[in-house]
Design brief:
The chain has about 20 residues and is mainly α. The protein is about 75% helix and about 0% strand.
Length: about 20
């Protein structure tokens, strides 16, 4: 895939933050 691990991790953190709220 063309998505780097760092990018994926950033999106993951963003999603987790959205779920908490």
């Amino acid at each position: 895939d063309g998505v780097s691990e760092g990018q994926f991790y950033q999106v993951l953190l963003h999603e987790l933050d959205a779920i908490r709220k």
